[in-house]
């Protein structure tokens, strides 16, 4: 992120670079969380190098998720820009009261006399065999909480820029959701590499939404909405639908999950009338439920929709079970084909 | 307003009067509020500070003007002792647009200058620690004061915060008001072991006081604040006290004999005799007129308009 | 609930009677929570009289919501039938980890070697001027949590029988959601009193769903789905739609919120094609989002839908603001009329 | 298996051998596991008990067969000392259908008879209290043993549970394994004050031990269990120990000199000399064959089928 640093090549490098640059630019930025100090640099290494460069501003904490978020909230109330790390998203449950009844409420409840420019980062998601308490995708529980923004990077949207926006340009608390499998993922660019088939339009500034179309293709048959790591699955499904089934899809990729601002999706849906929503969290009351509900309520024409999400089950340790619980490329393909009225093989 | 050496007799008399009037203000404010409730001018609930006035008044008298306070459900007394605007609080409690939070917060959710409160037991404690940390980092010299009831020692996040406050030597004063009840539950049914030992186990300097004499509270608070500010390091003040009113409105299940015995600890009755009759009457007059003015204005004030709710549109309307 | 006791007349009496009867019938039933002892009998009096009759089985606790749920979970793991009370539903946030990562997971994660027959009761909802931290309707955050059932009584479904089912007949953890304004509500019977215009069909046994139709009316124009206190608003709206607008509605009233079992709603929707979902919680990712999403996905014919819910804001202390935040009869009327293509007055 | 008076020399020798073999089983099991990880037969993560074996082995040797244990992320050693089936654990860790939880739980989420574990720090403590309460109410005479690491003293719910356990005099033993690290964080960076004082502040009888001698742990555990069972009342055992392996897999950031010094506390090295060479060799043989058998069967076992997930249908398939 600094002028001299080489351009980052992975999501992890992008996030880590953004943290370095944020701390460099402002003495008000603090990092607070468990095991965030070097040489470890955090369980997923996102805070690597920070404590070496900014020893006074990287605070390793006891194992106290509620107090981590509460303490960071207090810092933010007094004008600092704290970035809290919750080691696994599963442990957000321990900080739920702090997020919902404290950080998110203060600004409104105090009638705009205070604000809480807090960022809470956390890795989520499965596919690493971590079992039932270290693999969940629980951000859905925080979508719609008044006063809280929920943002998720992906490999396409510049992850570091998103994090920078959340820390430096957002005066409200932001829950920043990082899928574990994204960290090692190379950054993507539309029209290049594995996205060579796609062209992208960007809507919004701070937390942009990308609409991806097959370059030079005819009108799309189906719209697929997703965020975060699900984009990795969706883009693979989209390519195989194109190559194997000649089905054209349009992908609408969100970074701001809540509040819901779905205009780009409405626009795509006006073209296709068919919507698949893909996410890694559990199906019921996942992000997709609100997306489908809003589209159903607001569309002039009838909407046909399918959600692809995890089964409403805990995430098992056994890979066979984990795979069968979490959404896969084949599920996205099946949903799109079924909506398009094709035989599902 | 830090601790001074033995004041002159005149200064002591002036201080006595000041402290008395501030306690009286809280007492009469709360009484007025309960009265307005019974008249239907107030809605929701309230937790009066009647009987505990010496704590907040003694403490804030020796706090610095820039110090920060985070209070709980029983916050009116803290707010008034802090110097909060009377009319703005009355209006807030009536849900008026002129309230200190525009009617959004109400009784337990106040923000005024460096004074904050929230109604979830315990949750304010890490937030207060974070405030103390920010002020330490900014080297502002401000102390953060956080209020807890004895019952709130049930909440785990309190201990997470004690650990962090001690580990990082934060300039925070934990004020534990021990009225020996949590709502209707006597302390023997919800607290094991020892209160001071709980703070001390985290390496926090703790002073336990069992008095409702405002002068004694003031002295102890001054020492504790000095410790917190100068080290800086956290400290705890465990203040034995007596709630001389229901927990919220009509919910007093305590035994009559016990309540009667508690009346002996009324801080107004303890401190009052240090003033002359005329001084006390003047205090009553001054408080009455301040409260009348505040409440009359608040009663006349408008309710907030639905339009002031903010931009989020309601669906299907 | 006992053979000799007079039939209860309010929701509160019904719940309290059920607790008495449950404790009488089984020595394994315990009540655990804050301030649950007589003479107080709980902040909303639901546990009144229990500690006098069963002093050893009513446990008043410290103010420790996480430990209340955790302790009750441990009791349930060892074969007791604990009923935990959380004084205000807002404080469920403090027990979120216990509910999501402990109570709800054990049975599945331990491969059916254990079960957690726990009931967590809690009053929710606004309209009493309790302000931002004592008025919320947060059960939506727990809908869809694997392994957790969420049940809500209303004035029509026998509330005591529901609670009895949750305690005595359900081996899984149940979150039992009681709206504060329901307590004083008289129990209703279809075809009688304020429900004299309605006839009801009941689906399901343990946690039944009621479908209410206007007695002797022509086919309904709109289906309204709801639960809990929202039924009070919905039935008032339904009557006024009938009388003032000659609009006929069918009400589908749920008691089991999660897992979602929506067959009776599908059936009604097959008749009307128009769906209004009403709830007191915030709109975004409320119960209604999942209802609308499922109906959209599963209906053969296109579904037209509107949700009526609270604005996504904290609940203010001021009554004017609280009223403007929470859904009202007029909102339900407006949604139904707009779906039916009528001018909204 | 309760505390007995001075045993005969023969009994003492048999006990020595038994304790050694149990510790060795844990040691070799964990080593085998880390090896299987590097061979890719295991997926996910694991937290080995290497270096801490004396705690679980000493403790469970004097626990009753019906006692209940609730363990944490570092549970393999506890499970094996409890008497858990070796093959069922190995299979569980490989995600096999024959695992102790059918492959659903994995390393941190175990249930076997009266042994439970979960992977969220602290959250198990109130659940264990509830178990102890149930057993007290049922008058079963069972003691509940709950394991915590020093780092887990950061979690607030632990203190909620200490308060309740003491208030209700629950038959629960808190076993605090103090290896002075939480993942990579040394205790000086995350713990203020004093560990024993934290328990004592809640009125809980606490014994602190700084030894990795299994015989000493066993004695202290026997006394603590007796206290818990007979009063009944909670007690805490604070066991100083040394983790002689990475926190999970490769994440050891500790200084080499410190690690080398820790090796002096290897409980096998301390207890081993009480056995003859032949006895030790026999123990190695017996453990090796038990582990080979368990792991070979586990490796050959089938993975669970997706169909065993349960009835909840996945959408859109
Ligand atoms: C998390 C939480 N649980 C429960 C309550 C309900 N409640 C409000 S005040 C109170 C008692 C508090 O007792 P204590 O801390 O001793 O303060 P006091 O009321 O005696 O001043 C309770 C249980 C709450 N506000 N927050
Ligand atoms: C609530 C929660 N926060 C964080 C973690 C991640 N974590 C797993 S083990 C561990 C360190 C635990 O330290 P300690 O309690 O001392 O046990 P030890 O690992 O030393 O045996 C951490 C932070 C977790 N599992 N649960
Ligand atoms: Mg109290
Ligand atoms: Mg440790």
Description:
Chain A is α/β, with parallel strands linked by helices. Helices cover 32% and strands 21% of the residues of chain A. Chain A contains ten helices and 13 strands. In chain A, the strands form two sheets. In chain A, strands 2-1-3-4-6-5-11 form a seven-stranded mixed sheet, sandwiched between helices. In chain A, α1 packs parallel to α5, α3 (65-77) packs parallel to α4 and α6 crosses α10 (329-339). Chain A is globular and about 60 Å long. With 317 residues, chain B is an alpha/beta fold. Chain B is 44% helix and 12% strand. Chain B is built from eleven helices and nine strands. In chain B, β2 and β3 (115-117) form a beta hairpin. The radius of gyration of chain B is 19 Å and the shape is globular. The termini of chain B are far apart. Residues 311-317 of chain B have low confidence and may be disordered. Chains in contact: A-B, A-C, A-D, B-C, B-D, C-D. At the A-D interface, α3, β13, α9 and α10 of A face loops of D. The complex binds thiamine diphosphate (2 copies) and magnesium ion (2 copies). One thiamine diphosphate sits between chains B (73-74, 119-121, 149-152, 179, 181-183, 247) and C (34, 63, 65, 87, 91, 94).
Key descriptive features of the protein:
heterotetramer; A: 345 residues; alpha/beta; seven-stranded mixed sheet; six-stranded mixed sheet; 10 helices; 32% helix; 21% strand; globular; B: 317 residues; two-stranded antiparallel ribbon; 11 helices; 12% strand; binds thiamine diphosphate; binds magnesium ion
Can you summarize the main beta sheet of chain A?
Answer: 7 strands, mixed
Total of DSSP H or I helical runs spanning 4+ residues of chain A = 10
Q: Which structural class is indicated by helix and strand composition of chain B? A: alpha/beta
Terminal CA distance of chain A reads 46 Å
Given as residue ranges, the uncertain stretches of chain B (5+ residues, pLDDT < 50) are: 311-317
Ligand list:
thiamine diphosphate, magnesium ion
Written as H for each helix and E for each strand, in order along the chain, the element string of chain A is HEHEHEHEEHEEEEHEEHEHEHH
Question: Over the alpha carbons, how many angstroms does the gyration radius of chain A reach?
Answer: 20 Å
Strand arrangement, major sheet of chain A: 2-1-3-4-6-5-11
Radius of gyration of chain B: 19 Å
Shape of chain A: globular
């Amino acid at each position: 992120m600094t002028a001299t640093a080489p351009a980052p090549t992975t999501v992890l490098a992008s996030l880590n670079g953004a943290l370095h640059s944020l701390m460099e630019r402002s003495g008000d930025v603090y990092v607070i969380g468990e095991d965030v100090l070097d040489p470890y640099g955090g369980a997923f290494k996102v805070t690597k190098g920070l404590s070496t460069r900014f020893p006074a501003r990287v605070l390793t904490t006891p194992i106290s998720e509620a107090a981590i978020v509460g303490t960071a909230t207090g810092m933010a109330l007094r004008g600092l820009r704290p970035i809290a790390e919750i080691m696994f998203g599963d442990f957000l449950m321990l900080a739920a009261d702090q997020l919902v009844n404290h950080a998110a409420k203060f600004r409104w409840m105090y009638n705009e006399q205070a604000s809480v420019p807090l960022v809470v980062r956390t890795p989520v998601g499965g596919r690493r065999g971590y079992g039932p308490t270290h693999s969940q995708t629980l951000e859905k529980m925080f979508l719609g909480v008044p006063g809280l923004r929920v943002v998720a990077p992906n490999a396409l949207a510049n992850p570091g820029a998103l994090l920078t926006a959340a820390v430096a340009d957002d005066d409200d608390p932001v829950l920043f959701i990082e899928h574990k499998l994204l960290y090692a993922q190379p950054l993507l660019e539309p029209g290049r590499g594995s996205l060579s088939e796609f062209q992208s339009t960007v809507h919004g500034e701070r937390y942009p939404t990308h609409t991806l179309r097959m370059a030079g293709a005819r009108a799309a048959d189906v719209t697929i909405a997703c965020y975060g790591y699900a984009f990795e699955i969706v883009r693979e499904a989209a390519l195989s639908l194109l190559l194997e089934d000649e089905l054209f899809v349009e992908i609408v990729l969100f970074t701001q999950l809540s509040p819901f601002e779905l205009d780009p999706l409405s626009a795509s849906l006006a073209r296709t009338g068919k919507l698949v929503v893909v996410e890694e969290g559990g199906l019921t009351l996942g992000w997709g439920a609100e997306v489908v509900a809003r589209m159903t309520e607001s569309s002039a024409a009838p909407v046909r929709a399918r959600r692809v999400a995890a089964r409403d089950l805990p995430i098992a340790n056994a890979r066979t079970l984990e795979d069968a619980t979490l959404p896969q490329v084949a599920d996205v393909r099946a949903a799109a084909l079924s909506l398009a009225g094709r035989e599902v093989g | 307003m830090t601790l001074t050496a033995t004041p002159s007799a005149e200064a002591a008399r002036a201080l006595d009067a000041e402290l008395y009037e501030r306690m009286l203000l809280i007492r009469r404010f709360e009484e007025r509020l309960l009265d307005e409730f019974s008249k239907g001018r107030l809605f929701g609930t309230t937790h009066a500070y009647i009987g505990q006035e010496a704590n907040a008044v003694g403490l804030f008298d020796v706090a610095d003007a820039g110090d920060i306070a985070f209070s709980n459900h029983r916050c009116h007394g803290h707010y008034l002792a802090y110097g909060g605007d009377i009319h703005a609080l009355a209006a807030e409690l009536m849900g008026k647009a002129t309230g200190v939070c525009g009617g959004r917060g109400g009784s337990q959710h106040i923000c005024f200058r460096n004074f904050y409160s929230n109604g979830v037991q315990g949750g304010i404690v890490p937030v207060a620690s974070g405030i103390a940390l920010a002020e330490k980092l900014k080297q502002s010299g401000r102390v953060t004061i956080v209020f807890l009831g004895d019952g709130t020692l049930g909440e785990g996040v309190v201990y997470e915060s004690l650990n962090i406050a001690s580990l990082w030597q934060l300039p925070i004063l934990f004020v534990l008001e021990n009225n020996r009840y949590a709502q209707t539950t006597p302390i023997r049914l919800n607290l094991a072991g020892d209160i001071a030992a709980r703070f001390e186990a985290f390496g926090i300097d703790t002073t336990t006081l069992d008095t409702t004499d405002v002068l004694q509270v003031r002295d102890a608070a001054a020492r504790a604040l000095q410790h917190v500010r100068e080290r800086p390091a956290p400290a705890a003040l465990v203040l034995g006290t007596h709630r001389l009113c229901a927990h919220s409105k009509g919910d007093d299940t305590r035994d009559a004999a016990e309540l009667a015995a508690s009346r002996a600890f009324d801080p107004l009755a303890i401190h009052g005799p240090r003033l002359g009759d005329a001084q006390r009457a003047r205090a009553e007059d001054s408080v009455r007129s301040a409260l009348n003015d505040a409440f009359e204005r608040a009663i006349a004030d408008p309710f907030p308009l639905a339009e002031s709710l903010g931009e989020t549109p309601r669906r299907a309307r």
